[in-house]
Model the fold of this input.
Amino acid sequence: MKFETLIYKMGTFDTIKIYSINTLAFLSTLSSIDAVLKTGLLMVSIAYTIVKIVAIIKNDLRNKKQK
Done:
């Protein structure tokens, strides 16, 4: 095996190792962001539901007063 080929293969292995570490770091960051986004979406959906319930109740009370 030529020396240049050996250096190339070792360089490829190092590159793969670096990409693997970067991918793991990126995925761990995404999982943290994912939890934050899910919590935020849950809070927004709860707030939206409460606003809609209040609007429906107000509309029903207004309709009962008009009758």
Observations:
- The helical segments are 3-66.
